[in-house]
Amino acid sequence: MKKIKSVLLVDDDPTINFVHKLFLTEWGITDQIYTAANGQEALDFLERSEDFGQQPPSMILLDINMPVMNGFEFLEAYKDLQESKKASVIMAMLTTSIHDKDQEKASQFIHLDSYMSKPLDKDQLMKVIDKYWLEIEQKENVL
């Protein structure tokens, strides 16, 4: 099983975060899982991570519809973060939205690697991890 250093779950639904945390742990994807209730909390986490000795997460799983700062607003703000504070490799939209307009809008963001539907699916997640595995290994070994 391929294992990554850490994952940041960004979703305003604590139940979804809890369930996805259980899945990631059960599947052995990572031992380090962080959560944020909206895009602003996620940005704040990424900004502070170096301050408390944390490396940026290897993967961010991001919801679209959240209060305070939604997923698209997060992606806009994420572009302006220092490179050292961005996720190591993978940014994936994880949403219930099946609207073509949301998928089309998501495809405009260069930092977004994947668009997946909730709930998190192991096969779907592993395809994304497999696709970026060499980049993950290289970046995590540098950090």
Return the string of H and E elements.
Answer: EHEHEHEHEH
Q: Count up the domains.
A: 1
Q: Which fold does the CATH topology refer to?
A: Rossmann fold
Structural class: alpha/beta
- First CA to last CA: what distance? 21 Å
Morphology? globular
* Strand line-up in the sheet with most strands: 2-1-3-4-5
| Continuous helix count | 5
Q: In terms of per-residue confidence, which ranges show pLDDT below 50 for 5 or more consecutive residues?
A: none
Largest beta-sheet characterization: 5 strands, parallel
CATH superfamily: Response regulator
Helical percent range?
Answer: 40-55%
Rounded radius of gyration (Å): 14 Å
Number of strands: 5
Mean pLDDT across all amino acids: 86
Measured by DSSP, the beta-strand proportion falls in: 15-25%
CATH class: Alpha Beta
Attribute tags:
143 residues; alpha/beta; Rossmann fold; 5-stranded parallel sheet; 5 strands; 41% helix; globular
Give structural notes.
- The chain is of the alpha/beta class.
- Helix content is 41%, strand content 17%.
- It has helices at residues 14-26, 39-48, 71-78, 100-106, 122-142; strands at residues 6-10, 32-36, 59-62, 90-95, 114-117.
- Strand 1 (6-10), helix 1 (14-26) and strand 2 (32-36) form a beta-alpha-beta unit.
- Helix 2 runs parallel beside helix 3 (71-78).
- The model has no long low-confidence stretch (mean pLDDT 86).
